[in-house]
Amino acid sequence: MAWYDEAIFYHIYPLGLLGAPAQNEYNGVTHRLKNLDPWIEHIEKLGCNAIYIGPLFESVGHGYETTDYRKLDSRLGDNKDLKRFVKKCHDKNIRVILDGVFNHTGRDFFAFKDIKENRENSRYKDWYCNVNFWGNNEYNDGFSYDNWGGYNLLVKLNQRNPEVRDYLFETIRFWVSEFDIDGLRLDAADVLDFDFMKALRGLANEIKPDFWLMGEVIHGDYTRWVNEGTLHSVTNYVMHKAFYSGHNDHNYFEIAHTQRRLEGMGGSGQGGFKLYNFVDNHDVERISTKLNNKAHYAPVHILLYTLPGIPSVYYGSEFAIEGRKEKFSDASLRPALDINDFKDALETNPATKLIAALGKIRKNTPELSYGDYKELHLTNRQFAFSRSYEGKTVVVAVNNDDGDCGFTLPAGNAAEYIGLLSGEKIAVNNGNISFTLHGNSGEIYAPFDANARQFTEEKEKVLKKTSKENEAKKKSEKKVEEKNPEFIEEITEGISASQNDIVDEKVAGETDKTTTEIAKKDPIKIPESTNNKAKEEVQEDSKGTYEDGVIAGLQQAVIALMEKNGYVTDQMRQDVYNNVYHDSLITWIKSFR
Length: 593
Description:
The chain is of the alpha/beta class.
């Protein structure tokens, strides 16, 4: 077993995260990389034990038009900064892999500049593919050449040239000796020369134990790249597409059939291949932007962490930030972020809480790293499967419907199971477990043995710590239920059934809280930005009737749920306060579940 068999990746695009200028003026060094130090602790708290960071080396723009493979991009710092960063990660037992951009270079790379100067007499003219001195291009070089993706900014290297191969392999040896990296993500691996990748695998086997090679591959038979002779893994783009469209279309058949196809390629379990799974990255839209129903964030990520493969989270998506791909720019996919803006996310952001909980579950549940996959249940809106390893079986179920759904599924030979997200214990009857999933949610059921008991105890410790830290804040908050406890008891039953509150309340094994206690922890507050008339109606204590109080409370509940799903405009708030019909408001609340 290698470290990458149990890896949970955190993906960083450093030029974006650290707010580097879009263009490199080569006018000095700015030590931005040190600003990643607080992110290391954050990454550790999420349960991630590996970082994919890149591109890192000197380039003119977005990073993939390399101008110097052996020098950290001056917009990020110098080589000492990178060496220090990797060491700090290793001190936290976090592995580091970086981009190997070996398919092409930038036009400022020394070999290409020599061709521009010396043309036919350049000793580097065979370092690139199909250099034609009878042609020309938009730069008016007086010659043409092969590129990547139709962009002459990216000049295609000739990986069959022994000098090119030697130069790149010496570069990798330099990265290992100088920075102590743990592997490479090969950019544009789907167009790299296969003989080059086979030789690279030989190099990986000799330079460092368990040196990992993962390739960027969009589609095709992944076993062409993932095998004992070439790469350890590739990007699982087919599952990436299934993750979001399978939810947007209420079509779990797409996800299940995609996994069946992958099982046919390389299988799951300890001996199967482990693809690099992701729901977004620096080249595609954020998952929170892609999802039509934001509540699907939970089942999408439960699948990311439990289906066969190696899960990866793209920086910022653990906060459920959005990013839309634009025609001529990927800047919105690669924003600058300040970790201080998210310092309370683990306590207050349901998405961050979920990712951290899944990280702990993955770490403590070897079945999810090594287990054989078996499909148990499949409809358009419900999906369940098991992962079995060394005699133990973990059952995973997800529900993309807005309503609750009951499941009865075959389980392993344990007498009792526990929901690792909710803390709910269920008995095994006639070899089956039966449970209900709330709308837009999911659960991971594991045998309730010593390991599960220890994991539950760890979650209880986290809960106690969080409760103490928030006690002062709770005392100062004005609680709506003090005005109308009967209403709060009624309405929070619906709220606590949502996936957000499953994560908020149950991730630490908090299964014995009453509905009223949950409401006290997260009280429904009267929105500030309402018109005066609406405020008066909502805040009226003694003048209004009991029925008026119920209507006002229902209106507050609707707005609270809307705010959890995204930005709420004044018009949206006004629409809520114009609705004074009890049954209509109840239906509205149920629609969020």
